Amino acid sequence: FDDIKNKVAPKFIFTMSPTAIKCAGAPQKIMWLLEDTMRTLGKRDGASFSYWTPGKTMFGVPYYSEKLEEIRQARNVDGKFEHELIGIDNAKKVATFKRLDANKIVKESFDLLHVAPHMSAPDFLKHSPLSDATGFVDVDKHTLQSKKYKNVFALGDCTNTPNSKTAAAITSQAPILVQNLKNQMDSLPLMSAYQGYASCPLIVARGRTILAEFGYGGKLMETFGSSGAFPLNMIGTEGKYQQRFFYFLKEQLFPFVYWNLWTRGMWYGTTGPFKPGVRDDPTTQEK
After folding, report:
1. Which of 23, 38, 154, 257 is catalytic?
2. Annotated catalytic, 23?
């Protein structure tokens, strides 16, 4: 980085994978942090930043995508939409992209290239009868029960549930899976339903974070917004103080919770250390 930051007019390229990845906001977080760092160093004016994604927008949830698009334009980051990275010539510092909207090949030089790699289920799952054609375990997106074997349940990154693959999603899924597994063993209806909750703390600068929380179909499920429970919903989600608060959560609270509580089964996400009630959730079984 010391060599690059002192280079005249450095060119930074950041890419998004065409596959589902762990934390869909990760490729942007490092981009915004580096862009903010270059500003702090007084070297932003000569630097070029661009974000290349196979998608048509900055983020999969329209509400947050609009916010990120405003930031992108305000901070002069070039958006290359519907472009998929297909090759890298590191010796020549050239990246090759396929333009999806025109079926053309585009070559772009770079000084620094940040790549979000393709991700998939492990091979033993890809070739398992539990999985669908994409290689992920085929489950009902609400009950988390296998569509092929009624005594099998699954959660997390290995499943084909159409939600963002995050620790927050697994945290939300776990109590629901446990309750439904118990009901299945007791020959009772599967009454607990996962609504696709996921969370992605989008760091947009040092000390500033947008806390994206959403469910299936991009529905907002914000803990600190109008859809949250009292008194947390009184904090709100808009404004510089909220972004600083969310940055504190991301930098300080979440790592502590992860290593000291979450991995020991003592943290339940939006309800903190209090186990959520899932038995009375509405039945939402896919047909």
Report:
1. 23
2. yes
